[in-house]
Design a protein that fits this description.
There is one protein chain. By secondary structure, the protein is α+β, with helices and mostly antiparallel strands. It has two domains: 253 residues, no CATH class; 148 residues, no CATH class. The protein contains 20 helices and five strands. Helix 8 packs antiparallel against helix 12.
Length: 511
């Protein structure tokens, strides 16, 4: 993961969590286009300052003490050569759920590692990653053939549609449009059917026998009955009668045959699109596994080529719950906040804790796997975010993670793939569009390309996605609720940090 999670949160809500020195630039970037990953490159989180919770809780909620000092952050590092690192991780994971007040969910946002090239772990994990990549490439190779087939079918369908449009125009009420369609069909017949006679075709007769008027006469005949009005010598007329009769027979048969072929090709296109989606579904587990096995943690000077060393980066997000009703009961908030929350006139805010773990370990073979002992760095940070901010935070981290893996595949092809998808929809959903143009009920992603290159999810809203990422600023009431939620998040973060230190026999502070 290239993005710093604290910078990303500062970009998502610059008014509260971004340092004033970078706030205006970040807000300008978000206003132009809500690309939070790009804004995170410029963002800088506010500095964590000590808060006396007794004083903060005694003050009025409308003083917004939480917003004035919104971040609690504690860090520690120690060498745990005498114990494995796995128990440390699982202690934090289990106790976030057990000890943290009103904890709703715990998410693993980041899981990266890197091993020194000379270690056994490097070779073993590299071999597993290679195996996953090979399986994925086999499936994607088959999918590539299906995609080529889809492109060829689309070109065929375009040709069929152009021809069928001529048959539709042939039945038009407009004489000019009708005659133009007939002339085009006659030209097609001469170029594709009659030309097979070689020297005895109409064009061959003009070139070989100098029957210079026969093509003009053929083009002037609109129905078989018009042959009676043609003024030509008998020899040429007999040839022309035979060709005119054959043309109009071909006209009827070719329309029926072309219509059938058009429908069959559309069904074939649909089956090929489904096949591409199926291949993508099969490839997904291998791509995910290969992505997880990539050694993409940040390398440091501790990673020496010939040493038996591994570095790990883990980030956990714990989301708890803030209940304004509790503060109302204590008298910290007026009763009106219960009504505002019940009527959904204010958004819900969740105290969250972010636990960043960095391990520097010496892998030891243990049975079928490895054990890890070494140095631990842990950072505990608190925030308070609303539901939409948390959703965007997780989406942007995933987008950054998947973007690193797939940017080489997607490259600059997004526009061309979108263009192909429009053509696929035109043929696959042709009947539905005619029946109900205003209603869109197809929730399944029919785009085989987004399935292959975007892990089965395309954005049905298209350009509306940017607008959905915009976050309205807090109202005056919401600022009060967020401030109280921030104070709760800070208290719980400090308690959890102290609990960790006490359990691991480290000196802890109070207050």
């Amino acid at each position: 993961m290239a993005v710093n999670i604290h910078n990303l949160i500062a970009a998502i809500n610059p008014d509260i969590f971004c340092d004033p020195s970078a706030r205006n630039e970040v807000k300008k970037l978000i206003k132009e286009k809500p690309d939070y990953l790009k804004a995170a490159e410029k963002a800088k989180p506010v500095e964590s300052k000590h808060m006396d919770f007794d004083i903060a809780n005694r003050k009025s909620a409308f003083d917004l003490e939480g917003i004035k000092n919104p971040i609690e952050q504690h860090s520690l590092e120690y060498d745990s050569s005498g114990e494995n690192l796995e128990p440390v991780y699982f202690w934090i994971l289990d106790n976030l759920k057990k000890e943290y007040e009103d904890m709703k969910n715990v998410f693993k946002l980041v899981d990266n590692f890197i091993a020194s090239p000379g270690s056994g772990l490097f070779s073993e994990m590299g071999a597993k990653a290679t195996r996953m990549q090979e399986e994925a490439m086999k499936i994607l190779g088959s999918a590539n053939q299906v995609v080529k087939s889809v492109i060829n079918i689309l070109y065929d369908l375009k040709e069929f549609k152009l021809r069928l449009d001529l048959y539709i125009k042939l039945k038009s009420n407009s004489p000019g449009e009708r005659n133009a369609a007939l002339y085009s069909l006659k030209q097609i017949w001469m170029d594709t059917v009659d030309v097979k006679r070689s020297t005895t075709s109409l064009k061959g007769l003009v070139q070989q026998l100098n029957y210079v008027t026969i093509i003009d006469a053929f083009m002037s005949v609109n129905t078989p009955k018009d042959m009676e009005k043609v003024d030509l010598n008998e020899r040429v007329k007999r040839i022309l009668e035979q060709r005119v009769s054959e043309f109009f027979s071909w006209l009827d048969l070719s329309e029926k045959e072309l219509s059938k072929r058009y429908e069959v090709e559309k069904l074939y296109l649909k089956s090929q699109v489904s096949a591409a989606k199926l291949y993508a579904r099969w490839a997904k587990p291998y791509l995910r596994a290969a992505r997880s096995l990539e050694q993409n943690a940040t390398p440091t000077a501790a990673l020496v080529t010939s040493f038996n060393t591994a570095l790990f980066e883990l980030i956990l997000l714990g989301e708890s719950e803030y209940k304004s009703n509790d503060d109302v009961k204590k008298g910290d908030l007026p009763v009106m906040f219960n009504d505002l929350e019940a009527k959904k006139k204010i958004r819900l805010y969740s105290p969250i804790i972010i636990v960043e773990l960095k391990f520097r370990s010496v892998p030891e073979r243990a049975g079928q796997g490895y054990g890890f002992r070494g140095k631990l760095e842990a950072v505990f940070t608190s925030y308070a975010l609303n539901d939409k901010e948390i959703k965007i935070l997780k989406e942007e981290i995933e987008r950054d993670d998947i973007g690193d893996a797939l940017k080489l595949i997607e490259g600059t092809t997004t526009e061309s793939l979108d263009q192909l998808q429009e053509e696929i929809d035109e043929y696959i959903n042709d009947k539905e569009k005619k029946e109900e143009e205003k209603k869109k009920e197809n929730d399944e992603d029919t785009n085989p390309f987004s399935a292959l290159f975007s892990f089965f999810k395309s954005n049905p809203e298209g350009k509306k996605d940017d607008n959905n990422k915009s976050i309205p600023p807090d109202s005056n009431y919401e600022k009060v609720v967020r401030s109280r939620s921030i104070i709760k998040a800070r208290e719980e973060c400090r308690k959890f940090y102290n609990l960790y230190k006490r359990v691991h026999n480290m000196p802890a502070f109070s207050g």
